[in-house]
Amino acid sequence: MNKLLKALIFDNQLTLSVLDTTDMVNDAIKIHGLTPLTAAALGRTLTVSTFMSSNLKNKSDKLSVTVAGGGVGGKITVCGNGDLQMRGSIDNPTVTLPLRADGKLDVGGCVGKNGRLTVTRSMGLKEPYSGSAKLVSGEIAEDFTSYYALSEQQPTAIALGVKIGKDLTCVGAGGVIIQALPFATEETLKKAEDIMANLKNVSTLIEEMGAEKVIEKYFGSGVKYEEYHPEYKCLCSKEYIEKLLISLGKPELDDIIKCEGEVKVKCQFCQTEYKFGQKEVDELFK
Ligand SMILES: [Zn+2]
């Protein structure tokens, strides 16, 4: 089960979030046919986006994240809401790259660092809020740390990890994210930095001990936390696709039917294919 544990730590000076997104990454692998490399790139982005979604005020508020760094994987898109229903895609799900010299997946090469990451939050009827930052390394955690510092002026420490087993399923994925509240002291920040420096292999920690034990081991057994259950869930529907088609206009759709026999629309996030014949297209414009 996917988990997000949230707590206030060190005299309520910091917020701590520990995520186990193993099942979410496995759902993404199954839907998109991801390689270990693209699973790591999309999985890390899904994980940090789950954290960001948990900071939305209302369950119906929406988050959308794009990471476009010009790497071999192409653009990553992740969407979510305050209810922690997450979905994502990557342009080139089947690419691979040689392992780095240290034996790790070359996520930086997959994502690239020549570009930006953009975060958009939509809250009800208000104008959507959008912020962006230049990518630092394409390794995702560093990029979002930089985004928080530059675009949101929020000191944030982020560790993310996705570990893929021999059978190409994800055996451990998650993250540890700490944010400083405005009154956090230098001493507390130093303490948090030291802990994060020791938290190198988050995916292995999640695999071997789970999110609860990570809190206990690194932040003490007395930490009280709230538990949430994020999931990979696409919210597309036939009605939603119909609205998109109507916005294209009937002549365009008639043209497609003439050439291809039917209108096929595949959802980018769950790969569900919606098909519309002439009769159904006519119905849409009645
Ligand atoms: Zn879908």
Beginning-to-end CA distance, first to last residue? 45 Å
Radius of gyration equals 20 Å
Low-confidence stretches: none
In sequence order, what are the helices and strands, one letter per element?
EEHHEEEHEEHEEHHEEHHEEH
CATH architecture of the largest domain: 3-Layer(bab) Sandwich
Structural class: alpha+beta
Bound molecules: zinc ion
Key features?
9 helices, binds zinc ion, 28% strand, 37% helix, globular, CBS domain Like, 2 domains, single chain, alpha+beta
What topology emerges from the helices and strands here?
Elements: E1 3-9, E2 14-20, H1 22-32, H2 36-54, E3 62-68, E4 76-81, E5 85-90, H3 107-111, E6 116-122, E7 129-134, H4 141-151, E8 156-164, E9 170-180, H5 186-198, H6 202-219, E10 225-228, E11 231-232, H7 238-248, H8 250-260, E12 263-266, E13 273-276, H9 278-284
Helix pairs in contact: 1-2
The structure holds zinc ion (ZN).
Residues 234, 236, 267, 269-270, 272 line the site of zinc ion (ZN).
Could you explain the architecture of this structure?
There is one protein chain. A six-stranded mixed beta sheet has the order 7-6-3-4-5-11, covered by helices on one side. A five-stranded antiparallel beta sheet has the order 8-9-2-1-10, with helices on both faces. Helix 1 (22-32) packs across helix 2. A hairpin with a 4-residue loop joins strand 1 and strand 2. The chain has helices at 22-32, 36-54, 107-111, 141-151, 186-198, 202-219, 238-248, 250-260, 278-284; strands at residues 3-9, 14-20, 62-68, 76-81, 85-90, 116-122, 129-134, 156-164, 170-180, 225-228, 231-232, 263-266, 273-276. The protein is globular and about 70 Å long. The chain is built from nine helices and 13 strands. The longest helix is centred in the N-terminal third of the chain and has 19 residues, at 36-54. By secondary structure, it is an alpha+beta fold. The chain has two domains: 3-232, Hsp33 domain (3-Layer(bab) Sandwich), CATH 3.55.30.10; 238-284, CBS domain Like. The model has no long low-confidence stretch (mean pLDDT 95). The site of zinc ion has 6 residues, from loops.
